[in-house]
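For consistency, the fold was encoded as tokens, which produced the following:
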Amino acid sequence: MLNKILNSQTNSVGAAAGILAASSLISRFLGLIRDRLLASTFGASSNLDVYFAAFRIPDFIYNILIAGGIVVAFVPLFSEYFLKDKEEAWDFVNNVLGIFLFFLVITTLIISIFAPIIVKIITPGFNSQQLALTVLLTRILFLSPIFLGLSSIFSGILQYFNRFLVYSLAPILYNLGIILGIIFLAPVSGILGVTLGVIMGAFLHFAIQIPSAVNAGLSYKPIFHLKDSKIKRVFYLMLPRTFGVAAPQINLMVVTAIASGLPAGALSIFTFANNLQQFPLGLIGIPFAIAAFPALSQAWASQKKEDFTIKFSSTFRKILYIIIPLSFLIFIFKNQIIEIILKTGRFSEAAAALAAASLGLFTLGIFATTLIPLIFRAFFALQDTKTPTIIAIIAMILNIFLCFGFVHLLSFPNPFQGLIVKSFSLQDIDNISVIGLPLAFSIDSILQFILLMIFLFRKINLRVNHLAPG
């Protein structure tokens, strides 16, 4: 019975999005518990800054090689091959597993060796003790992209076969692993125990999806054909997107570098506020985008252009109708949200005020942040990874300038600083420059959203007109 439930298929975008939204709600709720436990246990402290900084390099590797590369190329190509020859499609999966496991292991080993140099570059404001601890945690966290990388390929299989229930359980188990690390390992090992919890969560994220992928038809065979034309197509599609995904990761590294030179806890405040503003993204934007992606890919692969447009427009409107009122609610109740979730234990009044202001500034761009995953997947379904990549790189460059500019503007008395202080009641806080970071991110997200929509409309019209008969 349990096996039947776990391997059940979801036959509509709405139902799939519902399952993903429900699981995302549970996962995000666990994420809030995780952040509350971190805030209570460590406060906005240098140790927690180290923990968040240690994620930067492993996350960069995972995102550019897997989340932003192989995943967006895998589903459209697997859809195409499976429609032609099922056995050939499964051989393609096994080859992808072998090749990308190899590249992940080699890449993480090499970068782990040079971790001390890289960590010093991205955290120039850390002292020697903080740097040593960041290097240690970074090397441990390199196990995470290996597990999550393999997991992402299994996720692509489950998405194609509409087995969203099992797929939706993976992030829940990931957060559970971290929470267990905080509760049971942190009292003994400190921040190292939390890091070990991350690795446990990543393993569970991977392991839960294996049985369902096997049930869908995967039979593992050790294949490693690097010169296979299908793998070349994967690289062709993923390389532009790899640069695109590198852009936001570079942004986060820049934020880490800036925050490392601000008062202790600045990086933790930004990260907590960023996690909270991503709640709608995880609850609404990503579930709808993931649920729509297979349908968009299959519609375009089958040359059903009208179906593609209808599915995209319908999903876009559903997200927009939910996210606009939700953004207003988050802004209005930002102080209460921070009070409930973060203001506990060692998390101070000043840190809570800055976190609330950061969350308020993030809400300005939440609608754009939430819609961007759907627009990206529309481009990916068209097998176009170049256009969103170029736009992402432009957005990255703009965001870097905005981050430095707003942090500088908020670091000394001036009319702009006075307006922000008055708007968010920050009169009793000496240094508010950290909230320049979420303001920069919001403005940048809106501009990126506008550019993506302009070029997507142009591309759909051009492609449809070009392929139309007569």
Notes: Residues 8-459 form one domain.
